[in-house]
Q: What sequence folds into this?
């Protein structure tokens, strides 16, 4: 299939709404002359990102609020006094009038809430990442695929930007020719260290519920102050930068190239810790060809690591985070708000700009896409099929990394050779159907997680 035909097919899919449904400027949906009823939404996790998500869905009926922190819960209840309040999300999901759930809890509880909510027929909007292990990501995705009438959306809000759409059009339209490799990086460097020492639990925090399905660790304020960067560096609570910023940055590559699940992965990183995720990580995945492009090598770098591209192409040291597509006729580099094309062959006369009617339509807004999906049956762009595959891809890198051996190696960095201590993981051949590394049985222990007694993932 030609890239031009594929782009038109793609645009047709993304432009379609429910038949006979009108979206007014106010955001209200109408079927004919009648407004479509508002959703009854439960917000689980209402501080930090949760407060922002509540603001994004406040046009609907907020009927339930849930948080393990009484201060967060009280602040949200002031804004939505009609909502019932809970500290335990499992009890919250028993409320009979709930249509939809917004999940903005800690990463290690995302998959549980997603699966439980979908099993009860609820539409789900969940902050990234939607899971904290490869097996969790697969279960979230498969649960959605059995209930595709549900509207689901992962909270990668920048996916709704116009710049993303223009970048997708350029790649799919052949502006840099056949894409062979993608390099994705974010220079944020998380802390390392060990699990934190015990402190008294302050009043108003249900620490046992915060821990939830994880192995128990005593309270320390360092786990919760400062948002997701406080907890997601620990293996039991998060998945480091590949889980955090990887969910945003890899989204650009995934959408533009219509990536799904890889056939292989290998990763390298800082010296392996039993407690915390790597302070730097590089990873390489092989993705098979689809019906309109060839195979692609996908690369990730964090913790200050960056692709070793020629300096004459761009000043990579000055760019904190970006995505670089390498095609056989040039490069396209982009971030959330900018994009640059660098032809290496010819003058781009091979590229035809899309007509106005072929442009990917502007987003209604990331939250609004999800709301419209719940009311019309149109799947949002970051639904759990799409997002589940991307998160499974990302977390597979950590499986390779955790199987690695730590040793001293000589590497060349910034035009200098130096000796560093690093962990090098094996190349895993990924058996998508059986959720296994076909060449390494040891990988099983990092594909799944063990949960505290009494906590059931598929509940």
A:
């Amino acid at each position: 299939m030609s890239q031009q035909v594929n782009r038109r097919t793609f645009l047709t899919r993304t432009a379609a709404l429910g038949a006979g449904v009108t979206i007014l400027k106010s955001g209200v949906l109408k079927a004919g002359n009648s407004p479509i009823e508002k959703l009854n939404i439960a917000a689980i996790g209402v501080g930090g990102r949760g407060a922002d998500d509540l603001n994004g869905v406040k046009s609907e009926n907020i009927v339930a609020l849930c948080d393990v922190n009484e201060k967060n819960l009280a602040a949200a209840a002031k804004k939505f006094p009609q909502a019932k309040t809970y500290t335990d999300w499992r009890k919250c999901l028993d409320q009979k009038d709930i249509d939809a759930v917004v999940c903005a809890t800690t990463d290690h509880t995302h998959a549980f809430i997603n699966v439980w909510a979908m099993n009860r027929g609820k539409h789900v909007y969940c902050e990234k990442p939607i899971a904290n292990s490869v097996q969790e990501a697969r279960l979230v995705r498969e649960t959605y695929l059995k209930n595709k009438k549900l509207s689901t959306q992962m909270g990668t809000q920048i996916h709704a930007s116009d710049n993303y759409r223009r970048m997708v059009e350029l790649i799919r339209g052949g502006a840099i020719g056949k894409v062979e490799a993608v390099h994705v990086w974010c220079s944020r460097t998380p802390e390392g260290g060990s699990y934190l020492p015990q402190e008294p639990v302050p009043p108003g925090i249900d620490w046992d519920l915060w821990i939830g399905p994880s192995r128990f660790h005593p309270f320390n304020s360092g786990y919760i102050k400062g948002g997701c960067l406080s907890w997601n560096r620990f293996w039991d609570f998060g998945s480091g930068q590949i889980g955090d910023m990887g969910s945003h940055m890899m989204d650009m590559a995934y959408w533009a190239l219509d990536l799904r699940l890889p056939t292989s992965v290998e990763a390298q990183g800082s010296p392996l810790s039993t407690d915390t995720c790597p302070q730097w990580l590089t990873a390489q995945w092989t993705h098979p060809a689809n019906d309109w492009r060839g195979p692609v090598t996908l690369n990730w770098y964090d913790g200050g690591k960056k692709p070793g591209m020629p300096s004459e192409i761009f000043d990579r040291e000055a760019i904190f985070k970006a995505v670089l597509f390498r095609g056989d006729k040039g490069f396209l580099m982009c971030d959330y708000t900018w994009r640059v094309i660098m032809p290496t062959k010819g003058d781009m006369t091979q590229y035809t700009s899309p007509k106005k009617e072929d442009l990917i339509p502007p987003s209604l807004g990331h939250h609004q896409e999800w709301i419209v999906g719940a009311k019309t049956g149109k799947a949002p762009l970051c639904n759990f099929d799409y997002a589940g595959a991307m998160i499974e891809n990302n977390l597979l890198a950590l499986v390779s990394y955790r199987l690695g051996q730590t040793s001293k190696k000589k590497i060349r960095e910034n035009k200098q050779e130096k000796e560093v201590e690093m962990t090098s993981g094996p190349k895993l051949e990924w058996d998508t159907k059986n959720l296994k590394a076909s060449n390494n049985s040891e990988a099983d222990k990092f594909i799944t997680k063990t949960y505290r007694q009494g906590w059931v993932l598929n509940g």
